[in-house]
From TrEMBL:
Organism (species): Brassica carinata
Annotated protein name in UniProt: Uncharacterized protein
Basic and acidic residues bias spans: 8-22
Taxonomic superkingdom: Eukaryota
Gene Ontology cellular-component terms listed: Golgi apparatus
Gene Ontology molecular function: small GTPase binding
Segments of this protein annotated with the region Disordered: 1-22
Length: 145
């Protein structure tokens, strides 16, 4: 009887240790999920900011294209008699074109960044799914024990 009582006490202590260990693991996992959530929120905010920036760049691009179109029309009229003015206006046109090219390059970079963030988010979601599956397996395993 006394041995049986000692075994029960040992089993109880072992169960308490396992329970404490499981609580610590759960606490760690909760913290990990909170950190992941914060990272995902920051990434989402960054993507929103990138989207806003892309829209601003598109508007700037359209505005500058409109300006270029107007400058081209203006340049066509005096070109026949004003060679000096034509060279000056051509120089302005080239600068605006370089600005547009630069903005287009930035836009392309932003789009690539967004695409990579989408892939990264998908990878994080996949990892999180695997993580939940592991947790469920551990819970099931502990329930079976």
């Amino acid at each position: 009887m006394e041995q049986s009582l000692q075994r029960l006490e040992m089993d109880l202590k072992e169960t308490q240790r396992e329970r404490e260990k499981a609580r610590q693991e759960l606490k760690r996992l909760k913290q990990h999920l909170l950190e992941r959530s914060a990272i995902e929120m920051k990434e989402s905010e960054k993507m929103d900011e990138d989207t806003r920036l892309i829209e601003e760049l598109r508007q700037t691009n359209e505005y500058q294209r409109s300006q270029i179109s107007q400058l081209e029309k203006i340049l066509k009229q005096p070109m026949a008699s004003h060679e000096v003015n034509r060279l000056s206006n051509d120089n302005q046109f080239r600068k605006l074109k370089e600005t547009i090219d630069d903005l287009n390059q930035r836009l392309a970079n932003c789009l690539r960044t967004i695409e990579s963030k989408k892939v990264e988010l998908l990878n994080l979601q996949t990892a999180l799914g695997q993580y939940y599956a592991e947790i469920e397996a551990k819970v099931w395993y502990h329930e079976e024990i």
